[in-house]
Amino acid sequence: MNAPVLVVEDDPDLLALLEMVVADAGHRVRTASNGLEALARVAEERPGVILLDMRMPVMNGWEFARELRARHGRCCAIVVLTAAENAQQRAAEIGADGWLAKPFDLDDVLAAIAHHLADRDGGAPAAH
């Protein structure tokens, strides 16, 4: 079974939209509304890609990324989703693998997921 995509977003409307779009594209989706929930999801099942909002209550994206790396190393790709003026800088601050500035095109989200899942699998076809 393919690794899930973990969507970490505190805006419930955006979280629901991303969950629907990513699932409709054929991916399994896990969700979390803050970094603390996201760490629990990673502990339950390692995702292939994490779509990570940076500004969240309880545990923000910076704290989550630091704790994820401390516990699991570079176990999975992180794509930052941010409304910050310099999305690339936010991504660099946490050593993320990619970024998308809000508002983003949903096709770009799916392309980023596909790109990072292919990198994770080494571009090799799935075993049967």
UniProtKB/TrEMBL annotation:
Carries keyword Phosphoprotein? yes
- Identify the Pfam families for this entry: Response_reg (PF00072)
Q: Which UniProt keywords apply?
A: Phosphoprotein
Respond yes or no to whether keyword DNA damage is given for this record.
Answer: no
Q: Which residues carry this modification: 4-aspartylphosphate?
A: D53
Q: Which InterPro entries match?
A: Bact_response_regulator, CheY-like_superfamily, Sig_transdc_resp-reg_receiver
Using the record's annotation, list all stretches that form the Response regulatory domain. 4-117
> What name goes with this protein?
Response regulatory domain-containing protein
Q: Which organism is the protein's source? A: Anaeromyxobacter oryzae
